[in-house]
Amino acid sequence: MSDTRTETDSFGGIEVPGDSYWGAQTQRSIENFPFGQREQMPAEIVHALGFVKQAAARVNARSGALDAEIGEAVQQAAGEVAAG
Asked: Which GO terms fall under biological process for this protein (predicted)?
């Protein structure tokens, strides 16, 4: 995987780390509003949110509310977040 990729939002393009799961808006927030270790969310909460997102994608894909291919991709990524 490359070191960075270009993501685009209403402000234009911005380089985002190639292995990150976020896009342009989150990258801009990281650069404009830096935060330290004290403000980081506990890893257990992040993992739990991964499980919730994975379950929601599964249900929405099965019900037809979410395209099956997109649902599978979201489930995969959310599972990786849940696993740490």
From this structure: fumarate metabolic process; malate metabolic process; tricarboxylic acid cycle
